[in-house]
Write a structure and sequence with these properties.
Layout (H helix, E strand, L loop, with lengths): L4 H4 L5 E3 L23 E7 L5 H4 E3 L3 H6 L11 E2 L4 E3 L7 H5 L3 E8 L7 H10 L11 H16 L10 E4 L14 E3 L16 H12 L9 H12 L18 H14 L6 E6 L14 H20 L6 E7 L19 E7 L6 E3 L20 E2 H12 L5 H4 L15
Helix pairs in contact: 9-10
C-alpha cells in the first residue's frame, strides 16, 4: 500500500480506517491524565429524514389520523408521554429514560432552510449554516474551537489527546471537519500495531516505515508517539470488551457503533465529542405503522441508545447525547404507504443534566391551514438553538457566534433543556 501525508490528512481531520495509525503531530498530550470530570457530547445523525410525526406522535391531533389512514399509530398503541404526545411503540425503551428525567424531546425542530434535497439539507445541518454552501467546516468542530477560545481567554492551558474528537465510521463526517483534528474509527477491533508480541499489519508497517524514512521534522521525531497513541486504544483490549450486564446492544451496525463509543468513553482516552450516524429513514414506500420498515428502524435506534446509557453506568451523568435528522416528512401519507420529504422534525436530548420528562418547543398544530406549504409540520424551533444550548452547557462553548455564525443565538432564548 502506497502512503503519504495526503492519505492521512483530509479537511483538517484524520480518517482511520481499520489499520491506519495516528500521526504524532495530532497527539498533543498522549500521556496526560485525562480530564475525567469533563462532560462529553455524543451526536447521532439519522440520515434519510426521519418521520417525526410517527416517532413522537401527536395522538390528540384529529387531523393526524385523517391524513394518515394506513400508517398512523393507533392511540391504543401509543406510549403516552404527557397526554398529548406519545412515542411510537418501538421506542418503548425510551420511556423509562423519559420518566426518570434523563430524556427530553424537542418537537417541530429543524433547519429553517426549505430545501427538500437530502444532500443539501444534510450539508446545511452538518455545517451549521443553513442556506450557505461555502462553509468549509462543521458546527461540532467549531464548537471545539470555541471551547479552546474560552480557555485561551481565561488564560488556562488545555491539553488534548488524539482522541478528543472522533467518529464511528470510515470517514470523518462533515460535522467534524475543520481546524481541530478529528479521527474516524471504522472498527476499534481492526487495529494492528507494532509492539511486543504483536505482528503489525501491512498498513501499519508501511506507515511505520514512512516515519522512519521521513525527513520531515514534524513527522519524523515522534514516530514512537504515534504508535503510543494507538496503543492507548489497544490497551482497552477492544476484542475482549464486555458491556455492563444490563446493556444489551442490538447486533446491528448502529448498535455496534454505540457500543464502541461507550467503550472508547469508558477507556479514558480523552474523548470529548463522538459522532455516529444511522441510515434507513427515507420511507417513501411501505413505511408501516406499529409494524414495518420504520418500526424496525426505531427498535434498533432506541435499543442501541438505551443500551449505551445503561452501559455508561455512573459515567452517564457527564454525558449529553443529541439526535438530529436533515428534515422531517410530509404530514400526509402518499399513495404508496409512505411519506415524502417534509420540514420540521423531532430531536431527542439525553443526559445526566438534561431536564427531561418533557416535550419542548411550541407545537404549531396539524390543521390544514397550519401546515407549511400545505403539506408539512411547521418549524418552530431552529435546531441551532437546541445545539447551541447543548454545546454551551456540555463543552463550555459559549462563543456561539463562532459555532453557528449568522444564527444570532442568545442564551436568553434557550429552551432550558439543561
Amino acid at each position: 500500500m502506497q502512503m503519504n501525508r495526503r492519505f492521512f490528512l483530509h479537511n483538517g481531520a484524520l480518517a482511520i480506517a481499520g489499520t491506519a495509525a495516528i500521526p504524532s503531530f495530532l497527539v498533543r498530550s498522549i500521556m496526560a491524565e485525562p480530564a475525567t470530570s469533563r462532560r462529553r457530547l455524543v451526536v447521532v445523525f439519522q440520515r434519510g429524514a426521519a418521520d417525526g410525526l410517527n416517532i413522537v406522535v401527536p395522538y390528540h391531533e384529529k387531523n393526524y389520523y385523517s391524513m394518515r389512514p394506513s400508517i398512523a399509530i393507533p392511540q391504543s398503541q401509543v406510549v403516552d408521554l404527557d397526554g398529548f404526545f406519545g412515542l411510537h411503540p418501538s421506542l418503548a425503551s425510551f420511556k423509562p429514560l423519559y420518566d426518570q428525567g434523563h430524556l427530553a424531546i424537542v418537537h417541530a425542530a429543524g433547519s429553517p432552510d426549505t430545501t427538500r434535497s437530502h444532500f443539501d439539507a444534510q450539508d446545511y445541518m452538518e455545517s451549521g449554516t443553513p442556506g450557505v454552501k461555502s462553509t468549509q467546516d462543521g458546527w461540532l468542530n467549531r464548537a471545539l474551537q470555541a471551547e479552546d477560545l474560552r480557555h485561551r481567554c481565561a488564560g488556562t492551558c488545555e491539553q488534548h489527546t488524539a482522541f478528543r474528537a472522533l467518529a464511528l465510521g470510515p470517514d470523518v463526517p462533515r460535522t467534524l471537519a475543520g481546524k481541530v483534528p478529528a479521527i474516524a474509527l471504522n472498527n476499534v477491533n481492526g487495529f494492528t500495531v507494532a509492539g511486543r508480541g504483536a505482528t503489525p499489519s501491512p498498513a501499519a508497517s508501511a506507515f511505520e516505515a514512512m516515519y522512519a524514512d521521513s525527513g520531515d521534522r514534524i513527522l519524523h521525531p515522534a514516530g514512537d508517539e504515534t504508535f503510543d497513541a494507538v496503543k492507548m486504544l489497544r490497551a482497552a483490549n477492544p476484542a475482549q470488551y464486555s458491556p455492563a450486564s444490563n446493556a444489551n446492544y442490538p447486533t446491528s451496525e448502529f448498535g455496534n457503533s454505540m457500543k464502541q463509543i461507550a467503550q472508547l468513553l469508558k477507556a479514558d482516552l480523552g474523548v470529548e465529542v463522538a459522532f455516529t450516524d444511522v441510515n434507513g429513514w427515507d420511507t417513501h414506500q411501505n413505511q408501516g405503522s406499529v409494524n414495518g420498515q420504520l418500526a424496525n428502524r426505531l427498535t434498533d435506534f432506541s435499543a442501541s441508545i438505551a443500551a449505551f446509557w445503561r452501559d455508561m453506568g455512573d459515567d452517564a451523568g457527564d454525558i449529553t447525547l443529541v439526535t438530529m435528522s436533515e428534515f422531517g416528512r410530509t404530514a400526509r401519507e402518499n399513495g404508496t404507504g409512505g411519506t415524502d420529504h417534509g420540514h420540521a422534525n423531532a430531536m431527542f436530548i439525553l443526559g445526566g443534566n438534561v431536564k427531561g420528562g418533557k416535550v419542548y418547543g411550541r407545537w404549531p398544530g396539524l390543521d390544514n391551514d397550519q401546515l407549511n406549504e400545505g403539506r408539512d409540520l411547521v418549524l418552530t424551533t431552529d435546531y441551532r438553538q437546541v445545539l447551541g444550548e447543548v454545546v454551551s452547557q456540555s463543552l463550555g462553548a459559549s462563543k456561539l457566534d463562532v459555532v453557528f455564525p449568522g444564527a444570532n443565538l442568545s442564551p436568553t432564548r434557550f429552551l432550558r433543556l439543561i
